[in-house]
Amino acid sequence: MRSTSPAWPNESVRSATHVPGPPSPVDDTRAAALAVLRLAAVLEPDPVAAMAWYCSVPLAVLDGCTASELVRAGRVHAVLGFLRATIAVDRAERRTLQ
Q: What pTM was estimated for this model as a whole?
């Protein structure tokens, strides 16, 4: 005879019994990479091009490292600051051209 009980506990049971641990360095790096890529999308809406920039374009003003290298080194705030400044310059130039 088939059991009528669910094979997996429902979400409320799972969340009540799951005790999350501290975030891992991998989780932190992944979150930082996503933050950088979201901000980079303001300048480059094509996700493939944004990922190529993130992985392979050295940033001269940030020691010649790529955004990916900087994020892994814990320098996400430097990359975000660079992107914010670049976005501000881009917007100012667009206003000037109008």
A: 0.74
